[in-house]
Design goal:
Number of helices: 9
Strand order of the largest sheet: 9-8-7-6-5-4-3-10-11
Order of helices and strands: EEEHEHEHEHEHEHEHHEEH
Length: about 250
């Protein structure tokens, strides 16, 4: 696996990196959450902009991105607008989704951008090109809050992200059984060993899938998501507990 280097953070190398979401609704709340992260073990900060009440205002989006960048210093910022179709806070058209992501890219204040590949076919390629033109690395993503498809389908979706030009491949799936968790782990292992040269992010959600958030290094997942305050997805655990477990696993491999 070739690591992706973002602000001296090597994603895909060593212990899985910890990403913590910011889910503030106002600019003040967003900056307050960012300040609170100075004292926690975090490698990447995800701005979940679908929670932001002014996300459709390009100027306010850019201003808030700039303030977030200044507050977080050298911590990498992942910009994510999660659509309602994939578990986010707001429903948007393809045109709105593209405009939001382009505004974030043009702000010059984000390092990574999440692009929904499977539900935004019409505009995903254009957003990826725009992000790369701004020297932003892209996480191609897919989220299914209802089920876990067979291993072959998981690998197919991840391969589609790779073919789209995404730098990092991400999939998050809801388990209906313990076997579904094993399916995600098996797909992660096969994809990482046989089908890609770039970092993966995979997880099985909810309580049943917590083990997938902890054991990613064993199977090939390069980032795991933890909560410093509010969670952004079911199954996220506290960032300090997460760091302890990741260290234990990493130091014994």
């Amino acid at each position: 696996m070739n690591p992706v280097i973002v602000r001296n953070v090597a994603i895909g190398e060593g212990r899985p990196k910890i990403c913590v979401p910011i889910v503030g609704k106002t600019a003040d709340e967003i900056i307050m959450e960012a300040r609170s992260l100075r004292s926690v073990p975090v490698d990447v900060v995800e701005w979940r902009s679908d929670w932001f009440e002014d996300v459709f205002d390009a100027e306010k989006l850019s201003d808030t991105a700039e303030a977030l960048r200044k507050t977080l210093g050298d911590l990498p910022v992942l910009f994510t607008f999660r659509t309602a179709e994939e578990g986010g806070e707001k429903a948007v058209s393809d045109r709105q989704y593209e405009a939001i992501n382009r505004a974030a890219a043009q702000s010059g204040c984000v390092d990574l951008m999440d692009v929904e590949i499977c539900t935004r076919d019409e505009v995903a390629g254009s957003i990826i090109t725009a992000a790369h033109n701004c020297n932003i690395r892209v996480i191609g993503s897919n989220h299914d809050f209802h089920r876990t498809p067979p291993k072959e389908e998981i690998i197919k979706r991840l391969s589609k992200m790779q073919q789209s030009g995404a730098d990092i491949l991400k999939i998050a799936l809801m388990p209906q059984s313990k076997q579904d968790v094993l399916t995600v782990l098996a797909a992660t292992l096969e994809m990482s060993e046989q089908h890609t040269d770039r970092p993966l992010i995979t997880m099985s959600m909810a309580g049943t899938g917590v083990i997938s958030r902890l054991a990613g290094e064993v199977f090939g997942s390069a980032i795991t998501f933890g909560a410093a305050s509010k969670t952004s997805a079911p199954g996220q655990i506290g960032v300090r507990q997460l760091a302890d477990v990741l260290d234990i696993i990493h130091n014994n491999l």
